[in-house]
Amino acid sequence: MRGFVALDFETATLDRHSACAVGGVIFDYVDGGKWAVSSSFHQLIRPPELDFETGLPFFDDFNISIHGITPEMVVDAPTFDHVWAELSEHFKDRLLLAHNTRFDMYVVRDSCSWYEISPGDHSFACSYRLAQATWPDLATYRLDALAEEFDIALDHHNALSDAQCCAQIARRAADKAGVCTIEETAEKLGFRLGLLSDTEYRPFSNAKSGERSGGSRRKLSEIRAMGEAPPDHPLFGKNLCFTGTLTSMTREAAAQLAINVGASAASNVSKKTDYLVVGVTDLGLVRDGSSSKMRKAVELREGGHPIEIIDEEEFLRLLT
After folding, report:
1. Is residue 307 a contact partner of residue 277, using CB atoms and an 8 Å limit?
2. Is 282 within the bounds of a domain?
3. Residue 178 and residue 121 in contact, taking contact as beta carbons nearer than 8 Å
4. What tens digit of pLDDT does each residue of 223-274 get?
5. Selection from 126, 82, 86 nearest residue 103 by Cα
6. Do residue 91 and residue 137 come from a single domain?
7. Which of 11, 179, 218, 312 has the most CB atoms in a 10 Å sphere around its CB?
8. What are the backbone dihedrals phi and psi of residue 7, each rounded to the nearest 5 degrees, phi first?
9. Is the pLDDT of residue 155 over 50?
């Protein structure tokens, strides 16, 4: 490929088809292993669903608190189908790169499905996974944490700034691997490129089945608290379980943070579970759009057990 596009989306709600902004930087590979910026873009997007009370695009208050984009800001913006038709012309023969492609590529896939348009044929890579494999000893691979670790300027949740940071993380991973392109970096670290097309979605993943980058994972039962847990913490004494892929850190790192504040982390949902933390789910690996843990939690709730099902952002709020 002649280069790549570092890409980032913000959404109006938890629904992946609710894109409200996209930012990106288009790079060309040039002689000497350099990456030259061809162009950059930042575009607000009008989500498809309306608030019946206001007539404005529907937003969740929580999402607004994250990225600062409001319904009034996007009411006159183009919808995703128009934005994607214009942008994707510049993506040909270039790899797509995002920090957590399980989010951003699902935004593309679900939005294209909503508008009944073609996403095109795109290979993609994930800077989160590249960072995880390159620096396996870091506590978290959240974009803002990596920006601080590597002294990268970041206006977090500004889509263009996030995309620029994503590219710089990939650049550092390539330099550490001693190669010139993202494709070579992925190959050297044992990853297979993802694929998004009209007929197929294949995630960016380890090429060798059964192996994971960064060494073997600890069992949750082996994780011990770092220091004394505060007994007044809202998670103290609570039992947590995780399902799906977290965007800000590994499940092991999330379990460590929970255990540090006095919670327990289990591998499976049971009657003892207080919180099920739901990350991004690979729909190709589950039945009826839900993981077995999610179905078990719903079943227990319907049976009267007070299990709370929360997303990653709510989990992070409870930690602080």
Report:
1. no
2. yes
3. no
4. 888 777 788 888 999 999 998 888 777 788 888 889 988 999 988 899 999 9
5. 126
6. yes
7. 11
8. -135, 145
9. yes
Q: What is the pLDDT of residue 173?
A: 97
pTM of structure: 0.68
Q: What's the token pair of residue 179?
A: 């190669």
Q: Are residues 68 and 189 in the same domain?
A: yes
Q: Which of 177, 206, 235 is the last residue of a domain?
A: 206
- Strand spans (E) along the chain: 3-11, 19-30, 34-44, 94-98, 122-126, 191-192, 194-196, 201-202, 205-206, 239-243, 264-266, 275-278, 308-311
* Inside any domain, residue 59: yes
150 shares its domain with 239: no
Q: Could you tell me the strand order of the sheet in which 264-266 lies?
A: 264-266, 239-243, 275-278, 308-311
**Is there a single domain that holds both residue 234 and residue 180?**
no
| pLDDT tens digits along 86-132 | 998 888 889 999 998 988 998 999 999 999 999 999 999 999 999 98
Which residue matches tokens 């227990």? 300
What does the pLDDT look like over 32-91, one tens digit per residue?
A: 788 999 999 999 999 999 998 899 999 999 999 999 999 999 999 999 999 999 998 888
- 198 domain-assigned: yes
Q: What is the count of structural domains for the chain?
A: 2
- 243 with 184, same domain: the answer is no
Percentage of the chain lying above the pLDDT 90 cut: 56
Domain that holds residue 169: 3-206
For the stretch 177-181, contacts whose Cβ atoms lie closer than 8 Å and that sit 24 or more positions apart, written own/partner, are: 177/134, 180/29, 180/33, 181/1, 181/29
Q: Rounded to whole angstroms, what are the CA distances from 267 to 237, 255, 270? A: 17, 10, 10
Same domain? 236 vs 281: yes
Contact 6, 164 (CB under 8 A): yes
Least confident of 10-19, 129-138, 305-314: 305-314
226 and 172 in a single domain? The answer is no
Residue 290 φ then ψ, to 5° = -130, 145
154 occurs within a structural domain:
yes
